[in-house]
Amino acid sequence: MSGDPLPKYDDFMRPTLQALRELGGSASIEEIGDRVAAAMSLTQEQLDLTYPTSGALIAADRMSWARSRMKPAGLVESAGRGVWVLTDLGRQAADWPSQQVKQASVDAYKALSAAKKAAAASDPAVSLPADDLAPPEADDWSDLLLAKLKTIDPSAFERLCQRLLRESGFVKVEVTGKSGDGGIDGAGVLRVNLISFQVLFQCKRYAGSVASGTVRDFRGAMQGRADKGLIITTGSFTAEARKEATRDGAPAIDLIDGTALCDLLKDLGLGVSVRQVVREEITIDHAFLDAV
């Protein structure tokens, strides 16, 4: 295939609306991505393509752009925690021609940009992006964070995951650091009221998608040794990997992909600080991540 092997971000708009409608009007980023990828017949090779500099997944990034660009047009809304909601107008727009959805989004975004310029002209404290059509900063910070996480020492990434689990309620969290143990990087105990669960975890710094084989191998290694498993990655998981993680009759394995990892680090203030200005401003704490 010559040129860019992926659809442009605005080509993902109408399929996103249709996916949300099929999923009942609301869905997680993960659910939307799976449904859109299937509807557009994207191959795993296409889904694994990454930007050379940041290592972020291109398809996931363009899907994110599509959602963000449709928000000013009132077609979708963000419910927080990685969940998006289809509006009444968006439900109608799912049946519009693709070009009409694109144009409505462009017009609304330009109107929003013009309003911000007018506000900046009357109030110098209002800041504007250099480019009216620059990608949303909410996407930028997570891309920068994931790129940073891929540069720190592997043992530092394991310690960061250890800290994340401790601050999320785990106790007795240990990093084994052993090789040849079926991908098991550590263990911890999760206490929920009066019940405790032994959990084994794996930390994968990864640019592409974690396949189902990795989940199966990890489950085999944890068999008889823990109640649950947890895989944390800077990348993503294939649809087959997620199905394997929740396969009937097998021990459950929870999956945390790069997007969820960024949100957790942000919520816990680990290597990420948030300062409320006109809008949310997020800073990556490189010193913290280097010293983990």
Question: What layout of secondary structure does this protein have?
Answer:
Blueprint (H helix, E strand, L loop, with lengths): L12 H10 L3 E3 H11 L4 H4 L10 H13 L5 E5 L2 E4 L1 H6 L4 H25 L14 H13 L4 H14 L2 E6 L10 E7 L2 E10 L4 E2 L1 H11 L5 E6 L2 E2 L1 H7 L7 E4 L1 H11 L3 E5 L3 E5 L1 H5 L2
Parallel strand pairs: 6-8, 7-9, 8-10
Antiparallel strand pairs: 1-3, 2-3, 4-5, 5-6, 11-12
Helix pairs in contact: 1-2, 9-10
Task: Kindly summarize this structure in a few lines.
The protein has 292 residues and is an alpha/beta fold. It is 45% helix and 20% strand.
List keywords for this structure.
12 strands; 12 helices; Arc Repressor Mutant, subunit A; single chain; alpha/beta; 2 domains; 292 residues; Trna Endonuclease, Chain: A, domain 1
Major sheet size, sense and barrel closure: 5 strands, mixed
Mean pLDDT: 86
Q: What is the radius of gyration computed over CA atoms, rounded to a whole number of angstroms? A: 21 Å
- Which structural class is indicated by helix and strand composition? alpha/beta
- Percentage of β-strand residues: 15-25%
Q: Trace the largest sheet across and list its strands.
A: 4-5-6-8-10
Shape: globular
Q: What's the CATH architecture of the largest domain?
A: 3-Layer(aba) Sandwich
Helix content: 40-55%
CA distance, first residue to last residue: 43 Å
What is the count of β-strands? 12
CATH class of the largest domain: Alpha Beta
- Number of helices, counting only DSSP H or I runs of 4 residues or more: 12
What's the number of structural domains? 2
* CATH topology group of the largest domain: Trna Endonuclease, Chain: A, domain 1
Low-confidence runs of at least 5 consecutive residues = 126-139
Secondary-structure element string: HEHHHEEHHHHEEEEHEEHEHEEH
